Amino acid sequence: xxxxxxxxxxxxxxxxxxxxxxxxxxxxxxxxxxxxxxxxxxxxxxxxxxxxxxxxxxxxxxxxxxxxxxxxxxxxxxxxxxxxxxxxxxxxxxxxxxxxxxxxxxxxxxxxxxxxxxxxxxxxxxxxxxxxxxxxxxxxxxxxxxxxxxxxx
Length: 153
What we know:
By secondary structure, the chain is of the alpha+beta class.
């Protein structure tokens, strides 16, 4: 697994999903599929739009199930290589403002167990924010694995 550029403000995780690469890639680029897994436990999307092409944008609004927390994100795709790699910049905030820009890089590789996804999220303002996002990604990726494991995606 590659090391993040600055371990204090970045993280890298690898997961193997029991599915072919084209299905896993689609789960990361199709809003209909993202709605099923791309929120941490206890949250859901009230808005999600995405155009996974270089230079295009995505926007989302995630709300806690209790209704007491809203997270608004928007990003720009810098690189999209179908079935292989996605890079985007993203900002997010609780007040709809600009927030701090981070960068996400996803790679998709064949693996004997299915498809290995390597996710690197970097440029956080501090380690606390990094840890919060790493936990969120962890629960999201767990949900995605369960969907593949049960054949629901």
